[in-house]
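Task card 7
Instruction: Convert sequence to structure tokens.
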Amino acid sequence: MDAFELRRVHVSNVRFGEKSFFSHGILTIDAYDVRAVVLQDRFIKSVDVQIARPGEEKRIIPIKDILEPRSKANGDPIFPGCGTDPDYIAGAGSTVVLDGVCVVTTGTMVNFQEGLVDMVGPGSGYSLFSRKVNIALVIEPVEGLGKHEHERAVRFAGINVARYLGSLATEAEYESEIYPATSPFDFPDLPKVVYVCQVIAQGLLHDNYIYGLNAQGCLPILFRPTEFMDGAVVSGNCAAPCHKHTTYHHQNNPIVEDLYSEHGKTLNFVGVIVAPVRAAFADKERICRQTVKMAEMLGAEGVILSEDGGGNPEVDLMLTTRLLESRGIKTVIVTDEYAGSDGASPGLADVTPEADAIVTNGNGNQRVTLPPLSVIGDVRAVERITGGHTGGLHADGSIDMEIAGIMGSTNELGAESLTTVLI
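Output:
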């Protein structure tokens, strides 16, 4: 297989105009065009398009998903299988990236596990999205729409707008990043490392989509590492905001990036196993054992295993680790913790003695006070979302909450800067 190319087009600002186009680092969008893309869905009653820039006194809440605009240089649709035929394998050819801008879906709450992003103040330090120019889609569904239909409509609104905006920069100047193809047969003198990426698939709005297919119906699947970059995994996941993997996180998985940086130097990055996380224990056994089988067949000597969500997925995390270690495959877990506001409670719902190498990305129960800011969306949601509580929203607009409600604050791919220390 040939190498994969990311063409990064750097976006310094986004503004409204009478025509949508990209020029000299500025993305100009016609709000009418963007609304037209969203309102193709008959389940969406209205959408308002707003912009939140770094340093502006703005808060976006409640956030369902965040995506990075991208497009394939050859015209194939990004996010294959999502509203399109899954008729090509992602992660090949060239992909254009609008670097510095995100599409954020917000509006009427879908489920209580949605989060916020502050563009300034103490909350902004917990989320990389405060450093992006965010195009917020404030979506109102039609009356009487069920939660699952609402989630689907919001998910596809984000996908379709990210596709549309990505298509505006296919002729722009870019910086090229090349990712070589990986193979178990490369670099025979280097240790073979496999990355196992959990994707939660538990129903009840806790789902991810692989090539458009709900991961509830999937056994583990072998990925080229670059498939993530083309949107082969899309988040429909309503897990707690601090550690849910948004679609942006899948597109920009830092574990994939770090392993690529060592590929051919200290290790052979063999590939990625995408492992669904189901709720029933029989499903967990089935998926974990299939994951370990695939790692063995790839000749893995080491595995990095990242969690998606918290609590229930930790059973899969520990079972997979136990099985891998029993076969002599050294395993490192990447997770976060819910250890109570004082940090004194057990941080994980399950443990195993074989899990002796763990990277933890912070404590979702850590508390924070956020100042009043101008709101895109509905700030009243903060009293209902994970990490918030009744009475947490004060009359002046300030908020007392856990960082569990901040999008990506303890991201289990290591996208942020928190950790947990033993005291």
